[in-house]
Amino acid sequence: MPRRRWHTPSPYGPRGNGPGRSLPSLLMRSTLSRSTAALKPSVRPSMPAILAAIALFPSASVFAQDATPDESSTTTPASASANGPAPASAPAAAPAAAQAASGQTLAPVVVTASRTAQSVTEALPHTTVVTQEDIVNSQAPDLRSLLRNQAGVEFSTNGGMGTNTSLFMRGANSNQVLIMIDGVRISGVSNGNAQIANILPDQIDHIEVVRGNVSALYGSDAVGGVVQIFTKSGAGQAPAANAQVEYGSNNTRQGTVGYGGQIGATSFNVTGSMYKTDGFSAINAAQWNADNPKSAARGIGPNPANNPYENKSISGQIKHQFTQDWDAGVATYYSNSQLSYDNAYGKPTDDYRMDSKLYTLSAFVNGKVLSDWTTHFKVAQSEDRSEGTINGLFDSLFSTRTRQFNWQNEYALTPDHTLMFGTDWLQQELASSSYNAPSRNVFSVYGGYEGRIGKHQIQLNGRNDHYSDFGDQGSFFAGYGYYLTSAVKLLANVSNAFRAPTFNELYYPYYGQPNLQPERAKSAEVGVQVETASTGLLRVTAFETRYNDLIVSALQPSGLYLAQNVNKAKVQGIEASWRASLWGTDVGASVTFQNPLDETNNTQLLRRARRHASFDVGRNFGNWRFGGEWLVSSARLDSGSRTLGGYGIVNLNARYNIDKQWFVAARVENLFDKNYQLAYPYNTQGRAGFITLGWRQK
Q: Nearest 5°: phi and psi at 348?
């Protein structure tokens, strides 16, 4: 099999599963892809610079506040568990009494950081929330646009909307970040990646982003972190309909309709949307042909035509409160997309298409067995399916079906000390046109403790996952917080995590090795969190993650490249996130410094910037709202010793409320028409404008 010089995302197709004729280069390299270029001096921000950055935000007065934190800050709804869609309404739940008394913006309630409900300020792993208000104000067209301003998060893409998208968190590869919708895993078992490019914001209520190793909570893939998407539930809202239409550059058309709310003890929501765009050419054909004149002379190269994309999505959820202590419900999400994509190794007239489907379906029950014992049941199924064609003829099929069952319990020893224990069962099956594979069964048990003793906060978690294909894998998390004052908290975490081999790595012909072991990682971090009414919420974290047994393609004497556990890597970094409302203006910032290093070859991991940051601002002026964001990144290395240049792009948005029901909104992406790349040789969106007309029943 020829060795390709490409990395995730590759020119083989939008999903990285390949066109069916050969294994994509994604699988022929280390999971943490590397460059062959000599390593440049590592970036190590000086301590004075870090302290100066921190000093810009909190005022000295925070250290003069009462040194004893308000114990009520841990009080959250018992039903807001990671096992049910109840958290979709969690940000509206009552948080700390001290915050309310001070007039401070109420902190969202999160469940992903510990699998139990807690204020985001109580979370010991670095956790942030993309709220419904953030989603509406940003007018983001896709999940990547929603998450690109998060600390520690980077993306690379194979072109425009719908193309293969890789999410890197704290330098970890895309298949080392766990993606869930309403607590349901959605990644394909063939390559370990999720269809994040096909998840559009219309069905999303909010998103929780947890950074660092949390396999002790969720098992495989939670190495770089977890992104959990919560669909709209209608809980706590008066029943109302909504609709909006959008038109913009690249002949983009979008429409959304929804209806949801709460009637008595029953909450419900259903939302459907359609998105179409003519797009732009994914691969920069002129750049490719200039770099590959011999191939171009033989008539081999990408199709220079635009690549259209279409997406249809729907989500639904219903929950009924049977008694004060028991509720049950059903949640579902479905997405169907058609994409035209480019392949650099075909003919310039070839037409490559990918039809992708993604769905989740879950049923859940939450209740109290005893006054101190809360239990949650969930049964769920998801499917990730991609079928490719070339010039209208079938080319490839990769379809993952995942079934899971979760049973989680929390037992309150006292108001300040809680035990958490449960079991997960997971089954994954693959249907593929390239090879056959046995199903994978995973049985897991886990437990944890959360407690507060005066100024001290503790979180301990342990988990064991038994895989039918490679046996047992244990993981742990130990977190500690210390309140210097009610506003300032010091944090420290140590943990380990793992990623189970994908089916491509185990079974793909002439590449897979059935005896592979999981990739493993160990992480340690320290940080400080500052929260006041005047300065908002700031968190600065320094971390180090070491990777062992990374799966790479190793050259054999026979000339084949086979999957083997041989590589090591290390990522050191400092990340900061800040959100505040200053003098009526909403502001936010995230900054990341990191040094992603392949220790086996002393080379830099591909497509990871050593420095990236974002800054956003928004303000209401009567019926108007204006906002914008600035995204900056340093240079990144890519395949073939190429360097992707650094960039800075500016996006603007505005909204006008015509009356209580109607509004008009507009946004401009890449205001200064910056020419940049997130992966060679793929184009990115140039300057583009969009306008939206919306209505919500009042």
A: -65, -10
Amino acid in the structure at residue 15: R
**pTM of this structure:** 0.89
Please give the pLDDT value at position 105.
56
* Winning range, highest mean pLDDT, from 9-13, 564-568, 610-614: 610-614
pLDDT tens-digit map of 100-146: 344 445 689 999 999 999 999 999 999 999 999 999 999 999 999 99
SS3 at position 11 = coil
| CATH number, domain with residue 285 | 2.40.170.20
Give the sign of the dihedral formed by CA 157, CA 158, CA 164, CA 170: negative
14 lies in a domain? no
Give residue for tokens 């990871």.
608
> Which positions ≥6 away from 67 have C-beta within 8 Å?
455, 483, 484, 485, 486
d(CA 165, CA 156): 6
Number of Cβ within 10 Å of residue 236's Cβ equals 12
Q: Is the pLDDT of residue 60 over 90?
A: no
Q: Which long-range contacts (CB under 8 A, 24 or more apart) does 411-417 make?
A: 411/372, 411/373, 411/374, 412/372, 412/373, 413/372, 415/71, 416/71, 416/74, 416/451, 416/452, 416/453, 417/449, 417/450, 417/451, 417/452
pLDDT(436) > 60? yes
Q: Is residue 4 part of a domain?
A: no
In a domain, 15, yes or no: no
Q: Average pLDDT of 220-232?
A: 98
Can you tell me the mean pLDDT for 361-377?
Answer: 98
Residue 7 pLDDT exceeds 80: no
Backbone angles phi, psi at 218, to 5 degrees: -125, -5
SS3 69: coil
Q: Which domain holds residue 80?
A: 25-696
- Candidates 136, 291, 73, 207; CA nearest to 654 is 136
Q: Which residues pair with 181 in a beta bridge?
A: 184, 229
By C-alpha distance, which of 510, 522, 602 is closest to 563?
A: 510
DSSP conformation letters of 132-178? HHHHHHHT-SSHHHHHTTSTTEEEEESSSTTS-EEEEETTB-GGGEE
308-321: pLDDT as tens digits: 999 999 999 999 99
pLDDT, tens digit (0-9, with 9 covering 90-100), for 641-694: 899 999 999 999 999 999 999 999 999 999 999 999 999 999 999 999 999 999
Q: Is 17 inside any structural domain? A: no
Q: How many CB atoms lie within 10 A of CB 68?
A: 11
Q: What is the spatial distance between Cα 380 and Cα 363, in angstroms, rounded to a whole number?
A: 6
Query: What burial class does residue 334 get, using C-beta atoms within 10 Å of its C-beta: 0-12 exposed, 13-18 middle, 19+ buried?
Result: middle
Measured CA to CA, the distance from residue 365 to residue 376 in angstroms comes to 6
Q: Pick from 407, 499, 418, 477: which is nearest to 444 by CA?
A: 407
Q: How far, in Å, CA of 534 to CA of 537, rounded?
A: 9
Residue type, 405: F
Domain count, the chain: 1
CA 282 to each of CA 318, 678, 684: distance values in angstroms, whole numbers, following the listed order: 39, 12, 8
Closest by CA to 160, choosing from 345, 9, 12, 341, is 341
In this predicted structure, what is the pLDDT of residue 84?
52
Residue 547 has pLDDT above 80, yes or no: yes
